[in-house]
Design a protein that fits this description.
mainly beta; two-stranded antiparallel sheet; 6 strands
């Protein structure tokens, strides 16, 4: 592609307003304050209560009812405020 192309959201239709990534997983913060994760879930870094690999962005239900405002990720950790 030679021109910018808008892709459809994989975040339940929400717009991503923040992202963080390590070499093995990624996090996305959506406009409604929800946090999504995907990639390698080793050491529980995806926040889903397990160590499963997630191929597609999956909402982190532990934050239901809360508004996340910032995210960070690194080698073996993920962090949300």
């Amino acid at each position: 592609l030679k021109t910018p192309t808008r892709l459809r959201s994989l975040l339940g239709g929400e717009r991503a307003i923040g992202v963080a990534a390590s070499g093995l997983f990624s996090l996305a913060l959506s406009a409604d304050g929800a946090l999504w994760s995907w990639g390698c879930g080793g050491q529980g870094v995806l926040g889903h209560g397990d160590e499963q690999y997630q191929l597609l962005p999956t909402k982190i239900e532990a934050f239901a009812g809360h508004r996340v405002v910032a995210v960070s990720a690194g080698d073996g950790y993920s962090f949300a405020i």
